[in-house]
């Protein structure tokens, strides 16, 4: 069922083979659907939730190993025996987010004074164990934004520290699903690692997949579906073709794009999972009091009285009626509980699993279990396939560039790229200890040379991490060559990013110049300097 692109890489011979990946904590396979659409081949996917695994196996039956296993028990070694290889290009995974979510209200909290230890926060380690074993070119970990602040940022730092110690160049970036063509307000944290021996930088800006138009609205995604009353609909029904045509005529090209290119409704034989949950009469009367796009909090401020019996202060946001003319609120696993924050824009009921799946950009041919609780949970947990596709395309493009760099002449002798450590230090040292005003005054050429010297000396760091503050470590980094020449460059460094504290003002200036247009993207992410440093060090160790 999934459509194949042509993205592949050369394995060194003439033959080009598709890039492969493993999906850990795969849920029902949102990440996998998108990665496959970006041209990757899934070698294996693992989750310990039986319903999610069965759903993935049913929909993506071409994937040989969709395994129902507990990742705290099942080892990478066992998996390699099963898939018959240790060659894995990419590992993706979304360890559970409940341990990081800012929404957690019961049983302690993930932040602040009510912080409680939660074993789910340690599951990233299972992903890193697989990374350590398979040593993929790239790994991508997806999580809620709360991972950055949970437990005072401890886990955000640990993931990156531990991945760096495995030999990965790591950085965090935030992805915005709406910008990538998903009709939903959903921002998530990605932590991306590229193997330190690979040249080039993974560029931070994800671009919408060609099939997607950015910033679609909720109405476009669900307006063709047959209207339902609460508790009505069925798990399998037929499309209302007249309504579909009318919807397309009224709303035009973006709708056609979303329905056919993203949801692939032409590939679905039947309309599935369009069955609404029942609601009490009291809830239904309260729903009717809400205007489109309004929450109960706003309505109460406008003098509307609701019947719900809970505290009007603590639960003022109890209901939200979504709007056809805006992106939907973030679809969350909690939708399995009551759906009151997801009231249909024009009907008196909450969204059906099919509507939630459409808001998450799952294709219509992807079927979910009949039990709504299970389907809502796996839909809300998933990485929207369109987001995963954008991630996959960025990963493929990084790997493709890495391949080219390995096979083409590198312009190491270009102007402004240091030829050895001595020259790098000679260019960099005059910039150390300058304050921001003094750094601003440095000429374009001198600043560029100082910056490329950093990339030359620290090829294992990513410019995107440079402004990440947090705890400082005093341990001494072992950077051969620099140790005897310039001790100021060795410590201290920021634990999250690995960036030496002394270099951060220079990085800030580089970002300032980039944002004001005085530094181009290829200056900020100057791969030639990074590669020159890598080659220089390889040369040194070979000479020893
Ligand atoms: C956020 S969801 C991942 C969703 C998935 N990436 C997708 O796109 O559909 C987290 C998943 O981790 C699974 N999980 C939690 N602990 C696990 C463990 N110890 N072993 C395997 N899977 C686990 C849960 O069952 C859940 O499906």
Task: Produce a short descriptive summary.
This protein is of the alpha/beta class and 544 residues long.
Rounded mean pLDDT is 89
The gyration radius over C-alpha positions equals: 25 Å
Fill in the CATH topology of the largest domain.
Rossmann fold
Uncertain stretches:
1-7, 10-15
Q: What's the CATH first level of the largest domain?
A: Alpha Beta
The general outline is: globular
Question: Would you give an account of this structure?
Answer:
- The strands form four sheets. Strands 5-4-3-6-7-9-8 form a seven-stranded mixed sheet, with helices on both faces.
- Helix 16 (444-457) packs across helix 20 (527-543).
- Helix 4 links the parallel strand 6 (90-93) and strand 7 (138-144).
- The chain is built from 20 helices and 13 strands.
- With 544 residues, the chain is of the alpha/beta class.
- It folds into three domains: 9-208 and 384-403, Rossmann fold (3-Layer(aba) Sandwich), CATH 3.40.50.150; 218-360, DNA Methylase, Chain A, domain 2, CATH 3.90.120; 411-543, no CATH class.
- It is globular and about 75 Å long.
- The protein is 36% helix and 11% strand.
- The longest helix is centred in the last third of the chain and has 23 residues, at 385-407.
- The structure holds S-adenosylmethionine.
């Amino acid at each position: 069922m999934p459509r194949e692109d042509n993205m592949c890489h050369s394995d060194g011979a003439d033959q080009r083979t598709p890039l492969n990946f493993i999906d850990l904590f795969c849920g029902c396979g949102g990440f996998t659907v998108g990665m496959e659409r970006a041209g990757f081949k899934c070698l294996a996917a693992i989750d310990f939730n039986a319903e999610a695994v069965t759903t993935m196996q049913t929909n993506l039956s071409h994937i040989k190993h969709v395994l129902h296993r507990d990742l705290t028990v099942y080892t990478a070694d066992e998996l390699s025996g099963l898939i018959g290889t240790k060659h894995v290009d990419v590992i993706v995974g979304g360890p559970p987010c409940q341990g990081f979510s800012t929404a957690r209200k019961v049983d302690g909290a993930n932040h602040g004074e009510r912080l409680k230890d939660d074993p789910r926060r340690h599951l990233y380690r299972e992903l890193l164990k697989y990374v350590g074993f398979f040593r993929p070119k790239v790994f991508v970990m997806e999580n809620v934004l709360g991972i950055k602040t949970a437990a005072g940022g401890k886990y955000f730092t640990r993931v990156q520290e531990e991945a760096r110690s495995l030999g990965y160049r790591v950085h965090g970036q935030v992805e915005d699903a709406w910008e990538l063509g998903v009709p939903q307000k959903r921002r998530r944290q990605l932590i991306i690692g590229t193997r330190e021996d690979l040249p080039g930088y993974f560029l931070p800006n994800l671009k919408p997949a060609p099939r997607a138009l950015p910033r679609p609205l909720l109405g476009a995604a669900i307006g063709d579906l047959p209207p339902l009353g609460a508790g009505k609909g069925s798990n399998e029904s037929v499309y209302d073709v007249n309504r579909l045509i009318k919807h397309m005529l009224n709303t035009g090209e973006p709708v056609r794009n979303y329905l056919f290119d993203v949801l692939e409704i032409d590939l679905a034989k039947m309309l599935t999972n369009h069955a609404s949950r029942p609601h009490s009469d009291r809830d239904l009367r309260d729903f009717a009091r809400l205007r489109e796009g309004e929450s109960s909090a706003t309505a109460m401020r406008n003098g509307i009285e609701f019947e719900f019996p809970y505290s009007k202060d603590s639960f003022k946001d109890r209901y939200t009626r979504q709007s056809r003319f805006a992106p939907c609120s973030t679809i969350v696993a909690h939708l399995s509980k009551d759906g009151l924050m997801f009231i249909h824009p024009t009907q008196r009921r909450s969204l059906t699993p099919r509507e939630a799946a459409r808001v998450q950009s799952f294709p219509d041919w992807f079927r979910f279990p009949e039990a709504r609780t299970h389907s809502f949970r796996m839909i809300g947990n998933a990485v929207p396939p369109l987001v995963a596709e954008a991630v996959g395309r960025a990963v493929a493009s990084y790997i493709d560039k890495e391949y080219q760099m390995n096979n083409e002449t590198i312009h190491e002798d270009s102007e402004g790229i240091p030829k050895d450590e001595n020259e790098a230090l000679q260019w960099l040292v005059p910039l150390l200890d300058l304050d921001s005003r003094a750094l601003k005054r440095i000429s374009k050429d001198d600043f560029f040379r100082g910056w490329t010297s950093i990339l030359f000396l620290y090829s294992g760091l990513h410019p995107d991490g440079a402004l990440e503050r947090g705890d400082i470590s005093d341990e001494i980094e072992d950077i051969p060559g620099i140790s005897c020449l310039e001790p100021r460059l060795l410590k201290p460094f920021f634990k999250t990013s690995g960036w030496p504290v002394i270099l951060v003002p220079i990085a800030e200036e580089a970002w300032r110049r980039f944002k004001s247009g005085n530094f181009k993207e290829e200056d900020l992410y100057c791969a030639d300097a990074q590669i020159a440093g890598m080659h220089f060090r390889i040369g040194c160790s070979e000479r020893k």
